[in-house]
Amino acid sequence: MKIEILKVEKEKIEVELDNLTIAELLRDMLWGDDSVILAAWKRDHPSKNPILVLQTKGKDAKKVLISTIEKIQKINDELISQFKKIK
């Protein structure tokens, strides 16, 4: 997966992703953090990559994004574990 950081500030980050599904998953999961005041993705045209925009209040946006990715990874690991138990 290709990720390009377009803009980084303390409470705002913009990241270009090459996968709309991942952008939507991140957007949805980011809203679980109380410091998030904006979590959305945009794209100029359907043929262009989505840009995830995250703005926080009181927390470092990059740290919030990394923490959310780690939560998604944990959920994914649990899901894989449950599927491996199925016979």
| Shape by Cα distribution | globular
The name of the CATH superfamily reads: RNA polymerase, RBP11-like subunit
CATH topology grouping = Gyrase A, domain 2
Estimate nothing, just give the exact number of structural domains: 1
Which spans of ≥5 residues are poorly predicted at pLDDT below 50? none
**Spatial sequence of strands, sheet with the most strands:** 1-2-4-3
The overall pLDDT average reads 96
Q: What's the total count of β strands?
A: 4
**Which structural class best describes the helix and strand composition?**
alpha+beta
Instruction: Characterize the biggest β-sheet.
Output: 4 strands, antiparallel
Along the chain, the helix and strand elements come as EEHEEH
Account of the protein in words:
The protein has 87 residues and is an alpha+beta fold. The chain has a single domain (3-85), classed as Gyrase A, domain 2 (2-Layer Sandwich), CATH 3.30.1360. The chain is built from two helices and four strands. The protein has helices at 20-30, 61-85, and strands spanning 3-9, 12-17, 36-42, 51-56. It has a four-stranded antiparallel sheet, covered by helices on one side. A hairpin with an 8-residue loop joins strand 3 (36-42) and strand 4 (51-56). It is globular, with a radius of gyration of 14 Å.
Quickly describe the structure.
This protein is α+β, with helices and mostly antiparallel strands and 87 residues long. The protein has helices at residues 20-30, 61-85; strands spanning 3-9, 12-17, 36-42, 51-56.
Can you lay out the helices and strands and say which pair or pack?
Blueprint (H helix, E strand, L loop, with lengths): L2 E7 L2 E6 L2 H11 L5 E7 L8 E6 L4 H25 L2
Antiparallel strand pairs: 1-2, 2-4, 3-4
